[in-house]
Amino acid sequence: MTIKNKPNTLTKAQLKKMIQGKFGLFLDFDGTLSEIVDVPDEAKLYGNNGDILKELSSFFPITILSGRSVESLLERIEIPTLGYVGNHGMEILTDDEVIFPSLAEPFLKNVGKAFEDLERSIQENKIFLENKKITISVHYRNVSDPERTKTELTPLIEKIASTHGLEMFSGRMIFELRPPVKIDKGTAFEELVKNKTLSAAIMIGDDVTDTHAFIAARDLRLANECDAYSMAVIDDETASIVIKSADFTLAGVQETNQFLSSLLMLARESST
């Protein structure tokens, strides 16, 4: 396991102290718990992450905080003892029911109409349109020239988003259309930390959308409200802002797996 100094260092003793308190672990899915794949529906948990997460959740609360829908996460993880927050905070699994925050729910019809416009406007069969009810994802990883496609699609998607009162965001070979409300992984992370009255927390993610949670973790720590830290899972595609925003980095999903394994060992030691 390698945790690169950026500028703080979480030692084994610090981690042990964190998990002995009221600790919570937050994780993205794609590029963090699962390798990035060409076809989103083919993503699955890397290695033995499922077994590790299942046992870790017996020691402290774990929340999957992802851009995927909750339904998509449940299909791929299937661990009922975890918490699930999808669509960058715009979906929350509560008592086996997916709840849309009141700020976002009025935009369900707008999202549906925007998706219809995208279907009519984008004919490239290697571009995958994903209707996630409260948000839309446009995946272009499989096209022959992703940079050119990004340049060509940007004005079209911006126009469709504007027409339907939505906002456009971009990430790793993806565009996203979302309601124009202040809900993101950062607001979701902060709200969950406070609702669970956590004394310590770690957020692990790999994409630009995760930086909102990274910044929220830093702000909570600096305000002495929660001893929260962030870890960026990096590879050759990682945006510089992701690395800059994180407290630490992990080299790919393999090191995420190693970190989770080490955390499980500490949790077992602390429980005896």
Structure description:
The protein is an alpha/beta fold. The chain has an eight-stranded mixed beta sheet with strand order 5-4-3-2-1-10-11-12, with helices on both faces. It has a four-stranded antiparallel beta sheet with strand order 6-7-9-8, covered by helices on one side. It is built from nine helices and twelve strands. It has helices at 12-20, 49-56, 70-77, 108-121, 146-163, 185-195, 211-222, 240-245, 252-271, and strands spanning 23-27, 62-65, 83-86, 91-94, 97-99, 128-131, 136-139, 167-171, 174-178, 200-205, 227-234, 248-251. The chain is globular and about 60 Å long.
Number of strands: 12
What is the overall shape? globular
Q: What's the average pLDDT?
A: 94
Largest β sheet strand count, sense and barrel closure: 8 strands, mixed
Distance between the termini: 23 Å
